[in-house]
Amino acid sequence: MTAPRLADEARGGRRKVRPGSIAFAVCGLPLSLLGMAYALAVLYAGGLLSLTVIGLPVLATGLLGARQLGRGHAWLMRTLLGETIVPPAPPEAPPGAFRWIRSNLSDVTAWRSVLYLVLRLPVDLLAFVVTIALPALAVWSIVWTVIGDPELWLAVTAVVGALIVLAFTPVTARTVMRVHRLLGRKLLGPSTSQVRVRTLERARTVAFTAGTRDLRQVERDLHDGTQAQLVALAMTLSLAADTLDGDEPTGRTGALVARARTQTDAAIAELRRLIDGMSPAVLDRGLAEALPQLTGQAGVPVALRVEMSQRPDPVIERVAYFCVAELLTNVSKHSRATKASVDARVVGKVLRIQVQDDGRGGARIGAGSGLSGLRERLTAVDGTLGLHSPPEGPTTVALEMPLRI
Predict the structure, then answer these.
(1) Local structure of residue 392 (DSSP, 8 states)
(2) What are the pLDDT digits (tens) for 223-263?
(3) SS3 letters for 2-51?
(4) At what angle do helices 55-81 and 152-187 cross, to 10 degrees?
(5) Quick one: the chain helix, strand, coil %, rounded to 5?
């Protein structure tokens, strides 16, 4: 569709009055009165009881209800006015009563819904007047001049005034509905900061996914291309060495071929280590299948416990795998531990991994143990790192990551 046609359709849409505008103006006034009453009741009760034990829970519950009322008003606006409002992110449901109260009291969407309920009443009053009351009065004036017996100047004035009101009713109705749409978009939809956060989260997801895909492509190219060529070279050198062994002693030539073969074998081993470090093949079967192999290669005996009811995203699995690998390396190199344990489980929508060892404690983030790098890696996927390492040990590191990036 061309740009001029889109512009013409947009102008045509602005000239039309949606049939739902009348219904929105009729039902809007009683709804706005109820909404205003609810908002004032929530604010009054919360403020009045704020000095008591039940004040904050009452206010938190009222804000949660305001958020739900905002969703209902957004649905009504979409149904009658055709205004699609992007729903804000759902509220968090943290465990514990205190965290639940704090989460609701700090819910920006709920407070913006309260402000919408307060500001909608004057707009609805104006919409009712210009959409219902004034046109009804204009029609009544015309009917009155027909069935009544007013004086000529009064009848002419009433008819002309009524026709002017009816002529401008579509314009005023569209203007008031445009104010309603603007109010709904600004207060019932996500805020500018929330939209930016969503945009950045989508960009981060795309970047992580693309990065993982590119790494897998490089890994396949190295595995199927470079490594295969090096293996073929090693076989050729092996055949050359066997041929030289069957001939007369060749001296320096045989030594150089043997040396080249040894270097080729070392290059193949290093390339395999590099490929496995970029994208471990065992992760193709999932983190639950990769952890037993990882813990089996640790420098100390590791007790592993895995409970995963669902598989995380590949990006999350990759981050978790390398974090556990780094922690087990720290255990082997720095802790002087004789044993360790890894507990990985899925709790709700969160992947929790706990790595513990019986070695000396005193580990600190930023003390050269690599924990600060792990924390930064976890922060990139909205994860957290917790550390408990008293001087006498043991050391426990807790990792938490969302299942979905």
Answers:
(1) T
(2) 667 767 777 777 777 777 777 665 555 567 777 777 777 77
(3) CHHHHHHHHHHHHHCCCHHHHHHHHHHHHHHHHHHHHHHHHHHHHHHCCC
(4) 120
(5) 70, 10, 20
Q: Assess contact for 290 and 282: CB atoms under 8 A.
A: yes
Tokens encoding 26: 């009729």
Three-state DSSP string of 277-312: HHCCHHHHHCHHHHHHHHHHCCCCCEEEEEECCCCC
Task: Give the β-pairing of 302-307 and 350-357.
Answer: unpaired
- Tokens representing 61 are 């519950």
The H-or-E segment that residue 385 falls in is strand 384-388
Find the helix or strand (DSSP H, E) in which 244 lies. helix 227-246
Q: Strands across the sheet with 395-402, in order?
A: 302-307, 340-347, 350-357, 395-402, 384-388
Nearest to 180 by CA among 65, 40, 41, 23: 23
- Cβ–Cβ under 8 Å, residues 335 and 377: no
Q: In a 3-state reduction of DSSP, which class is residue 152? A: helix
pTM equals 0.55
Residue with tokens 């037993």: 292
Question: Phi, psi at residue 369, to the nearest 5°?
Answer: -95, -5
d(CA 321, CA 248): 54
Q: Which of 40, 89, 81 is nearest to 62 (CA)?
A: 40
Per-residue pLDDT tens over the stretch 108-164: 888 999 999 999 889 888 888 888 888 888 888 888 887 877 777 777 887 888 888
